[in-house]
Structure prediction request, 631 residues.
Amino acid sequence: MASEPSSNKFRSSARFRFPVLVAMAVSAGLFSGCSEEDSLVDVSCRPGDPASGQYDKDLPELCSNDIDDNCDGQVNEGCDCRDGEISTCGTDVGICESKTVACVNGKFPDCVPRYGPRDEACNGVDDDCDGEIDEGLAPRECWSGTYYDVILDGSTPCRKGVQSCENGRWSDCVGEVLPQDEQCNGRDDDCNGEVDDDPVSEGAPCGPAVEAGQCLRGTQRCHGGESICIGAVFSETEACDAIDNDCDGQIDEDLYRPCSTACGEGVEHCSLGRWIGCTAQTPQVEICDGFDNNCDGEADEGCPCIAGSILPCFKDVVDAAGNPVDCGYGLAQCLASGDYGPCVFAGTTVEVCNNRDDDCDGTVDGFTAQCGDPTSDGVGVCRLGTATCEAGNWGDCAGVVTPADEVCDGLDNDCDGLVDEDLDPHGKVDMLFVIDDSPSMCPYTQALALGISQYLDDFRGTEHRFALLAFPGDEDSNVIAKLVLNLSDVDTFLTSVQGLGCGGGGWEPSYDAFKQALDPANVYHINWRADAYPYVVFVTDEPAQTWYNVTESAVASKAAACGLPGCSPGDRVEDFVVTNLNYSSQYDQIIYGQMDRIYEIEPPQADRYTGILRQIFTNVCYGGQAGSASP
Prediction:
């Protein structure tokens, strides 16, 4: 309490001394004639502004009237506020809500905001009431996998991802690598700490699409990161052995070979492992019909005859005197003995190929005749040839030109009246070979290199160029494939192909490599030419795989909308696939649904691969010039 004013001190001391003095005065008779009550002075407190009277401790000081209620000379002492005065606590920013309280008896009651700040959360709300929303929230680790045995310590491919707060929500889990079904690839795909443990392909059937004839399905086994087909038997070229070698449900079908008898040449076919049905005439028992039925060079030998009957004859011809003539033909008359008499010269005939001088000009055979197909003679390149008869046999048909497959040479090769028809107008071609060089390709690599070499010999001196891209590359360095050789001439390319190996990794990113080969971004800096059309030949023995979740449709979109130099709007890349035909459905979108663009990689034979390349390249023609000689 504040000290009292001096006047109040006076009042206070007077209050207590004055009655004593009065009493003493009365007792002394100083105030004669006055009652004791009349002699007292009223010094009680009278509140006001200012107050009068002496301080009265029993009077409360009010906190609502701004006057001195207890006459201590002070106003509202001990009051923190005036009664009814309003105070607010808290804030109305963000989720916070303030509270208002009124002063009671000079004191504000405790004030607690209705809602106070809390830690900021990712919810699109200002939780800590600082005027900012979702601020300061660091990215957090995330994992959307449901596998409980996944190892995430960095020893497996699996990784947790990161979420960021975006627009009041935690984003998708970015960068996480989830466990996958275990594959046979030398990797721990399911992230359980074991590599190639029970891969999904283990024990699955493999090999030919169906079991027919000699074809048998095998079983996949995982070995060294490669899936190997154990026990499979594949189709082969049909042979005459009573076995369905090509596994088409038929035995020894369409097998023919030349055959001959004493009577001439023919063709026979195979049936259940045996050659039968030779179409050549077989010798018959000689009958008296004017023909050489037993094909011994004489007609009707040993035949009885009717006396006087005449028979033409061509052997042992003599003149009327019995002298040998040895040319032309004669007539033999049946004698009464039932035998024919001598063959007496009767005249000459047109020379025929029979090792006789039919026209008696002193020359036996030695003449020529046209041979070949007269219906195509003079159409396109087709021409009749000439055969020469020597010693009763016709020689080869020299100079004959028969219809052949159309090739790009400015000529009508198939003799149909059209030149270079149905051939694509690609005068210059840039051909990129994208080849799997993983260990499982070893059986195919050498045969493929030889097949390519045999075929590309035809391209020396042309303007076509060839490049080689091998995969897989280095996964740790995110390198899908490696450019072995950029677009070069034939000789440089053949040297590179002959050095092709099979020492690549065991997990082949097929879709990734195919997509990058077609991508206009050209990450391998292939020197495509603006005036040459792009071709891509893709070779692998494995099912389609990917390192970075590339899909078949993603590759197909790059192929269908060619963005490489040399293409015009609306063009598509000329792409072809050589693989196991069991995997054809994994490439059908990429080859535009045209199944003649995909070829069987089995068996690994150089001549087969040469034939495949000729089919791929046979239609490249422009103005009578092509990148290939006649296939």
In short: The chain has six helices and 28 strands. Residues 424-626 form a domain with the Rossmann fold fold (CATH 3.40.50.410). Residues 1-36, 622-631 have pLDDT under 50 and may be disordered.
